[in-house]
Structures are given as C-alpha cells and as structure tokens.
Amino acid sequence: MATIKDVAKLAQVSVATVSRVLNSNGYVNPTTKERVNKAISDLNYRPNDVARSLFKGRSKMIALFVPDIMNPYFPELARAVEDVTNQHDYTFVLCNTDDDIEKEITYLNALQQKSVDGIIIVSSTINKEHIQHINVPIIALDRILSSDLSSVTVTNREGAKEATEYLKEIGCERIAHICGPENASNTVQRLRGYLDVVKDEDWFLSSYVVSGGYNFDKAVEVTINLLKDHPEVDGIFAANDVMGVGVMKAAQSLGLRVPEDLSIIGFDGIALGKTTSPSLTTMAQPIYDIGARAAEILIEHINDKELLRKREEFTVKLIERESTKVRR
Amino acid sequence: MATIKDVAKLAQVSVATVSRVLNSNGYVNPTTKERVNKAISDLNYRPNDVARSLFKGRSKMIALFVPDIMNPYFPELARAVEDVTNQHDYTFVLCNTDDDIEKEITYLNALQQKSVDGIIIVSSTINKEHIQHINVPIIALDRILSSDLSSVTVTNREGAKEATEYLKEIGCERIAHICGPENASNTVQRLRGYLDVVKDEDWFLSSYVVSGGYNFDKAVEVTINLLKDHPEVDGIFAANDVMGVGVMKAAQSLGLRVPEDLSIIGFDGIALGKTTSPSLTTMAQPIYDIGARAAEILIEHINDKELLRKREEFTVKLIERESTKVRR
DNA sequence: CTATTGTGTGTAACCCGTTACATAGAATAA
DNA sequence: TTATTCTATGTAACGGGTTACACACAATAG
Known about the structure:
homodimer
C-alpha cells in the first residue's frame, strides 16, 4: 500500500502539502493540488486510517451493544444504527453481550483501547458505576442505565396500558399478561401499564401475570399452564411479540381459536408478527427510528462534548391485525 | 488515559522493558517485572490498540458482509462469527451490503484503510475482479465468489433434492417450487436439486417453478397465484424458510389446510419455522457451525498467509415438523 | 583466565499520518 | 515606499506503541 510519502515524492511536494490536499485545509496552489491528486490516483493511494486515528485519538468507529442479535427485535435496531453510522463515515461494531456484565466490561475495555468514538448500549446489567470512568460518549437505548446518560426509549407503560385497554374494548373479560424477565426495566414498565388497567377489576388475580422471559419457548410453556389453570382467560397481553407468537402457538396447540376464543396482543411490532396465521396484533415501536435517532444523538455527542444530556421517548402505536377480535 | 511512558516512569524503567512485560517476550528480571505490573495496575494502564495496529499493520478486526441483517438467516450466522472472533481477541465489524456492489466496494476500501485483518463475505454481486487487488484474507460464505477463495457452503443441490424427494415419499403428487432471486448461486443449486427429482415426471410443468425472491411478502403473493392457477398442487418446496412460512400464510389465506391439503417444506432451519402453527418442516443448515467454521478458517488464513485455499461443505438435514404429512 | 553465551535493560528508529511553526515571495494597505 | 497580510510550501514534532541494536554484567565453557 502506498503511503503519503510515496505520493509526496511522486508529486514532488512535501507530505504536508499532500495532507493539505487530502483534508482540504490550508493553502495549496491549484496547480500543485492537481499534481498531488494525479499522484494519488496514479498510486491508488488511500490514507491509513490507523495512523490518522492514532494522531487524532479518534477512530471513526461506533459500537452497539445488544443482548443477542438472534433476538428478532435487534436486527432492525442494528440495521438502523449501521445505516446512520455509515452516512457519517463511521464503522459499525456489533457486540453481543448476553446481558452478561463480564462480557460487557470486557467489550468496554477493548473498545476503549481501540479509541472507539461512541457506544450505544441496550443492557439490563450495566449501571452508573460501570461506565463512570469511561470518557467515551454512551447512549442508553430501550432502557435507562444511568441518570447522566442520554437515552432513547419508548412509552412502555402507556403502550402497555393502551394494549390492555384495547383488549377490554374489544370485549375481553379476563385479561392475562405474559411479562418479560424481572431485571429488565421495560418489563416493569409494561407490567405497570397492564396493572394500571386491570388491578381494580373484580376479576383480577395476581396469577394472571406470569413471566415468559421474553422467550418464545418459555412463553409457550407458561401460556399452556396459564390457560389450563384459567380457562376463563379470553385475552392475553404479551410483553413482546416473540412471546405473543408463543402465546398463539400455545393456544392453537390447546385447540383454541384465535381470536374467537382468545385475543392476543403483543408488543414491539417486529416482522415476525406478520408471518403467523392469524397475524399478530401488536403495540408497535418505531424500531428503526429509535435506532437511527440513538445513532444521531450519539454523533451529536461525539461532535460536541458539551452537549447536554438528551432524553427522547418515542410513542408506540397500535397495529390491529388478526389475533384480536374486531372492535365492536 | 495513561500511556506506556507513564508506566515506565512510575516503574523507573524504559518503555522497552514495559513493552517486554506486556508482551511476555525478551528478558525481564522477575523483580522488575513485578514493579512494572504494579505500575500498570496502579495506573490502570491499557495499551493503545491503535498505536499497536499502526506498527503491526494489523488491527485485530474482522468484518462480516451480509446482504441484510434483517433477513432472519443472518443473525445466527453473525452471532457465530462474532463468538469465534471474540474467542481469538478480534473485534467484530458488521456490514450490511444490500447486495449492492457500490456499497460493497466502499466497505472494502474503508476496511482496508482500517487495516482490517480479514473479511467474511456473503454476496451475490462480488466477483473475482472486485477482490483481486485486495491483500486481506477473504472467505466466501454460503456462496462461492471466486475460484481462489476459501469458502464454506452447504449441499444446496443435494438438500433440495432430498426435500423434494421427501414430499414425494409422503405422498405428494404435484410438487411446486418457490425459488430465490435469480442472481444468487444457491437459488440455482436448489432449483437444480428440485428439477433433478421432478423434471422427468409426466405431471411436471415449468409453471410449477416461480420466484419468491427469498422474500416473505413476495412468496405469499406468488403462492396465491400459483395455487389459484394450479389447485392440483399438493406439495411445495420453498427455497428458504422465510418463503416457506409465506407459502403457509398463503395457503391458510386460501382456506387450505396444512398439511392435509398442502405439504410445505422450507430450507435453512431458522427459528422462525418453529413459531408457526403448524411448524415448518425444513432442510436445516447448521447455520451457527457454518459461520463459526468460516471464522475459524479466516483466522487460520490470517495466521498463515501461505495456507492453501479450503473448500468446506456442510450437509443439510431434514427436520420433520408439522407442515408436511406424516410419512406413510 | 579468557572467550563465549545468557541475562537484563536502555536508546532510538519506525509505523503513517497531522499540524504547529518557520520561511518566503506576492499582494495589499497605509 | 515600507509595513502588513495573504498565499504557498517545507521541516519536524507528535501520537503510543514495538523492536532492532547496543551495551553491560553474570554465568559458563574451554
């Protein structure tokens, strides 16, 4: 690979002049500039980003932490972050953390050593202390990690409330909830939204809430148990779509008709919900927009270290599909 | 951030000695070593990887090109590559190419400028010429890009043949095929496997093959048309699971029972196939293993520039689920 | 007892850019 | 006409590591 010295030699100028041409700063005589550009293209020269990074202390890389890219919520998020990242000439690094704090810390260190410019984090385990000594901008996504971090989230509680109310509206009289893992903040929010609607109903039982850990197989299993114990349940709000589809699978395996016998609503709005028969009604998040916005805010922080903390909250939107009865 | 000089000063040695301790090479007196290690931990020093990369000309980064991480086949692949990558202390860079050669070339250049150590590519557009002047090891995944590249693929043709034969065995008498996009090499292979079985059947019609572009919505659409034109079709081999689920959706929307009226088999073995009712019978690829193996071979190439080209082919395996009639 | 090898450490060049600073001629201002 | 500013370019330090080479002393060999 040609270096800036080779270009300088061929164009008969100093490396400083070549650098000026490359970065369009300082004075360069148009004739000289042309000579340098010719040398650059003749040698097919491309500046070494590593050397640049070393001097600048910045690497033009952005990392995204997700628990597991195999969870279908994350690919769209990752895609959004990558797209924005690329538009701004950053390179995108993906880190699967398994919500394992050890792995997260290892990544945090490795990325710092690589002078990564910023990190977007979806995590249930990282807290203020883990990141206080990190001098790279961090954005919390989907969940809030620390009071002094910018974040992009959604109206989990309100959305959950709306989902549950929707089930009531269409005529469900016993509504259960399959919630996520206890340690995730959005599990708590969505559960609260559900309880906001049902806790004062005379039919409400605490056993109408069971945890499916945001996991398909677990959701199938707990739903089967729930429906066996409580055949009166005619509506289920699943805290995410993966579990919503699990609930549908469970219902169908028990011979229940969806939505005639059981209405199901999910949360997230991932593509999976469109593939089932019947397709899944859901409270959809603008997943791509969330990821894109997080990346934009991160880049703002990178460009302006003094930028104040931002908190942005997207609203979720009901998508009526086939897993719920038609509104009367 | 502390530098090696700070450590050297604190430990009262030269930077060379610190470097020797860090890299465990050369002679270092045990006492000195201890002093250096103390200084390192006192300062919480971590070597700057950018400086290291500049000197070494290697960055400890590996990139994966996929058409689109939102296609559910790729997250598992990406996960595998990332896991292996991490085990060997590499950082994982994900690139969504949309099978757009412009984007691919842009990435190739950007990664070279970053001294990336190796690239794993899934692409239908990149060919020999695009990569001949690239001096970084490249592995072709899922599809073969160039005769001189190591690759990891699956037995597409044999798997397709087996899938089609399976439909025959369970009693299907008119078997159609929803194929992938024309430009993908595995589309061609899977189509050949299908034709190997059916081309000499007296019932076979060329209109039994339609393209669904590996896409859910497209597959739903073309299947509806196919089944309207050819109500005699009682078995469909979809070239991937996403389309297989689309076929199921189409069949159910037409009021057909699966598998009683129509048996459906997919290809890939992604998690999606387990979520539907009925669940999707498929020719499963060992997706994780494929990705992991590609990453391992890449690392072998990185460590040994003289390593000969390797061609590894994984076999696919029938997973009988509920979308096909039971074998008589 | 000298020659050789092993041990332990430091100096400085190198990787490849960027940029502060120096220099100098040309253009403009006073 | 002289002072000042603008234009144009070069030299060299710098970023933070790694390592070739030099040097010195200790241990072992002959």
